[in-house]
Design goal:
alpha/beta; seven-stranded mixed β-sheet
Length: 275
Amino acid sequence: METRIGNVSYLAEGSTAVVTLERPEVRNCVDRETSFALAEAFRRFSADESLSVAILTGADGCFCAGADLKAVAGHEAFRKRTAGGPSERSQANPLSVDGDGPMGPTRMLLEKPVIAAVEGYAVAGGLELALWCDLRVAARDAIFGVYCRRWGVPLVDGGTVRLPRVVGQGVAMDMILTGRGVSGEEAQRVGLVNRLVEPGSALAAARTLAEELAAFPQRCMRADRLSALRQWSLDLDAALVEETLGGLEVIRSGETAEGAGRFAAGSGRHGSFGS
């Protein structure tokens, strides 16, 4: 059943949660209330043991055009310091090193994967939301870019950190410094997009991919995913230790023995993913 959390819709279907930005009148730009709603949606997904994968997308053919700059422009704290500062529930996005990111979930490290289904624009903070996701499925005519370069709005939702890690320093610097738009096809070529599909089909393709991920033994997949994410802050020796510790937990759970038993019984021959 679909529910609404502010300007965000939340639909749990099978083992997948679909989280949709619902502000099409502003190309799904995120104000503070929407950032709260996004963070709450992913907390709900994280806590629901019946769900294995989430999809993040935007309504009416646009992923997200970033932070709501009209709200930012009207926020006193962005123009000058004032006594008392902005109200707690101001419409502009929060700027703090504590708590959630200005766009909502961008500081969360979930235990389960998230797929971005991108149609139209994924720019500025929208690009950062897409980068926060583990995988990106995009339409050929989708556009990615640091469009906030033109307005003096910094990347504060992980863009300068995740973009170089995903596409490499050289490509990331080109995008960060120039702010130019990158098409879906170029984005796939540089590794920013994992699956490229025809316009209008990104969400359907993301649903299919989510079902594929949900069909795998979950403890093992989640342990491998977390190791791949956490290793960035560790030296090689420490990263290898953490990988082994996570793998041992999977083995002790019995999931590995169960999978080996299925293989021994004849499943998965010649690289088949069927049972």
